[in-house]
Amino acid sequence: MKTPLIGAVELGGTKINVGIGTGPGELVATARIATTTPEQSLGTVIDFFRANPPVAAVGIGSFGPVCLDPGSPAWGSITSTPKPGWAHVPVARTIGEALGVRVAFDTDVDVAALAEYRWGALAGCRTGLYLTVGTGIGGGVVIDGRPHHGMIHPEFGHIRVARTPGDDFPGICPFHGDCLEGLASGPAIAARLGASLSEGDLDDPRRAFIYDALGQALANFLLTLSPHRIVIGGGVAKAPGFHAMVHASMNRWINGYLQAPQLDADDYIVPPMLGDDAGVLGAIALALDLPD
Questions:
Q1: Exposure string (b/e) for 272-286, b if CB count within 10 Å is 16 or more?
Q2: How far is it, in rounded angstroms, from Cα 251 to Cα 279?
Q3: Residue 292: its pLDDT value, please?
Q4: How would you write the chain as a 3-class SS string?
Q5: How many CA atoms are closer than 13 Å to the CA of 265, on its beta-carbon side?
Q6: Which pLDDT band, with edges at 50, 70 and 90, does 150 fall under?
Q7: Residue 55: other Cβ atoms inside 10 A
Q8: Which residues of 112-145 are buried (b: 16+ CB within 10 A; e: fewer)?
Q9: Contact 178, 163 (CB under 8 A)
């Protein structure tokens, strides 16, 4: 039986990636939409689907925090967010009702993790961790093929990390100041260095503070989740040598406490195999898993 076409929405804070297809190499239409107001952006998303071949369902991966409780009337909504106008927007209901199709909904990082598990760098990992380091820092965990939610959903970017001696940067997170996202996200790096990791002075000693915070966070995730592999995507992670630097920093923080050959392997901390398509493909995977 031919797999029906699935719609995909990767809703980010600055842009929205949309697509129609069934998996890698099988996208029949894609587009990128600016994230402006909910009315304008979601209206453009709906127009995209109406202008293309019909879909059987839509998968959505959204920036958060979001409500994932299927028993809540707020399911499928963004909850608390510093992005103006987007708090409490019923994303899933708006799209589903406009198109008359079933909708699957999760965080943007959870769907990317799911895509990497199904088709990419987390394949075969019973516990896999996907992190994105870009405009914000977030993460998704897939355990035995299913995204982990818990009470709400994990928020890896907002953990606290110990400040490196000499690091007096106050942090930029509007909620927590110097949490991980406040210290090492793309905007935080730009505020620190006046440039991105890719463009800044390679000899700038302040770069060490960034890698130290990220490595410490990875050590915390390793100690609590024990993932079989860690995938790190996002714009910041495209800096030359990024994955090797955070890997080395993580192992310094572990300090020999954990003994596993994988921790020294070059393929333990890796970039996404699916690249920038992970979010859209993960949204497709999420909708494909909707019960019949």
A1: bbbeebbbbbbbbbb
A2: 29
A3: 78
A4: CCCCCEEEEEECCCEEEEEEECCCCCEEEEEEEECCCHHHHHHHHHHHHHCCCCCCEEEEEECCCECCCCCCCCCCCECCCCCCCCCCCCHHHHHHHHHCCEEEEEEHHHHHHHHHHHHCCCCCCCEEEEEEECCCEEEEEEECCEECCCCCCCCHHHCECCCCCCCCCCCCECCCECEHHHHHCHHHHHHHHCCCCCCCCCCCCCHHHHHHHHHHHHHHHHHHHCCCEEEEECCHHHCCCHHHHHHHHHHHHHCCCCCCHHHHCCCCEECCCCHHHHHHHHHHHHHHCCCC
A5: 10
A6: confident
A7: 20
A8: bbbbbbbbbbbeebebbbbbbbbbbbbbbbbbee
A9: yes
- Count Cβ atoms within 10 A of the Cβ of residue 61 and give its class: 0-12 exposed, 13-18 middle, 19 or more buried: buried
Per the listing, tokens 């699957």 go with 104
Tokens in use for 147?
Answer: 């995204």
User: Which residues neighbour 52 within 8 Å (Cβ) at sequence distance 6 or greater?
Assistant: 20, 28, 29
Place of tokens 């921790």: 263
The C-alpha atoms of residue 50 and residue 29 are separated, in whole angstroms, by 12
pLDDT, tens only, 267-276: 999 999 998 8
What is d(CA 190, CA 196) in angstroms, rounded to the nearest whole number?
5
